[in-house]
Amino acid sequence: MLPLDIYNQLKHKEIIIYDIDNTLIDVSKRYMKSIEESGIDPHTNIRRIPPKERAKFWKIFLSNKYLHLDKPNMGEIENLMKKYNEGYGIILLTGRPETLRKDTIKQLEKFGIKYHALIMRPKNNREPDKYYKTKLIKEMINYGLKIIEYHEDDPATIDVIKKNFPDIKVIKHNLANEKLIFHDD
Ligand SMILES: [Mg+2]
After folding, report:
1. Rounded distance from Cα 8 to ligand 1 centre (Å)
2. Which listed site, 20, 116, 141, 172, has its alpha carbon 20 to 30 Å from 78?
3. How far is the CA of 175 from the centre of ligand 1 (A)?
4. Is the pLDDT assigned to residue 177 strictly greater than 70?
5. Whole-angstrom Cα distance, residue 70 to residue 16?
6. Helices vs. strands in the chain: H and E counts, helices first
7. Residue 16 class from Cβ within 10 Å (0-12 exposed, 13-18 middle, 19+ buried)?
8. pTM, to two decimals
9. How much distance in Å is there from the Cα of 30 to the middle of ligand 1?
10. How far does the centroid of ligand 1 lie from the alpha carbon of residue 71, in Å?
11. What's the confidence (pLDDT) of residue 184?
12. 22 C-alpha to center of ligand 1: Å?
C-alpha cells in the first residue's frame, strides 16, 4: 500500500491516476523489438502464441533492455503537468514490475513527468492488470483517497474499472495502432 507520508500528502487532494505504458509513454518500438526477439510472428493471432514464446516476450518487454526506445506522449504529459501544477494528486499505477523501478523513475524524469506516487507490480505478482489495478484502487479508496479520474489504454482494465467505480471518470488512451498481445480482452 502507499507509504503513510504519501497518503498524508494526498488525502486532501483530488487524485488522478495514470497508467504508464501506452498511456503516457509510447512503447511500440520496445514492443516490436521484444516480439521479434522472442520469435513471435507479429501477424500471429495473439491467442495462438505458445506460452513459451509469450513468457519470453514478457521477460524482454519488462526488462530495461529496450526501454531506451520508448517515446513520451507529449500531449498527455502536458495535460498531466497542468493537473499537477493545479494541485491535483497524481498517482502512476503501472503493471511494470518493481524490478524496473529505478529505470522507470529515470525515464519519467527524462520525459518531465511529475507525480506523487509510483505504484508498481510487486515481485512474483502475476494477476492480470484488470484485477491487480482494481484491487489497488479499492485499497486507495478504503484508505480515504478521493480518486476522480483514471487514464488507461487496456480495454479489459477500462471495463472492469468502469464497472467497479462508477464515480471515477475513466479516460481511454490508445497509442498503439493495433491490438497488442497484452490487450487481453
Ligand atoms: Mg498501459
Report:
1. 27
2. 141
3. 9
4. no
5. 23
6. 7, 7
7. buried
8. 0.92
9. 13
10. 14
11. 59
12. 5
**Contact of 11 with 145, CB cutoff 8 Å:** yes
Please provide the distance, in angstroms rounded to a whole number, between the alpha carbons at the two ends of the chain. 27
Check pLDDT > 90 for residue 140: yes
What distance in angstroms lies between residue 142's CA and the mean position of ligand 1's atoms? Answer: 24
CB proximity list for 2: less than 8 A, separation 6 or greater? 10, 117, 119, 140, 143
Q: pLDDT tens for residues 66-120?
A: 999 999 999 999 999 999 999 999 999 999 999 999 999 999 999 999 999 999 9
Residue 19 CA to ligand 1 centre (angstroms): 5
Beta carbons within 8 Å of 88's beta carbon, 6+ residues apart: 13, 14, 15, 16
* 23 alpha carbon – ligand 1 mean position (Å): 6
Res 181: pLDDT: 67
Q: Look-up: residue for cell 491490438?
A: 179
How buried is 137 (Cβ within 10 angstroms: 0-12 exposed, 13-18 middle, 19+ buried)? buried
Q: How far is ligand 1, taken at its centre, from the CA of residue 95, in Å? A: 8
Cα 131 from Cα 79, distance rounded (Å): 27
Domains assigned to the chain:
4-26+70-172 (3.40.50.1000)
Q: How confident is the model at residue 50 (pLDDT cuts 50, 70, 90)?
A: confident
How many whole angstroms from 62 Cα to the centroid of ligand 1?
12
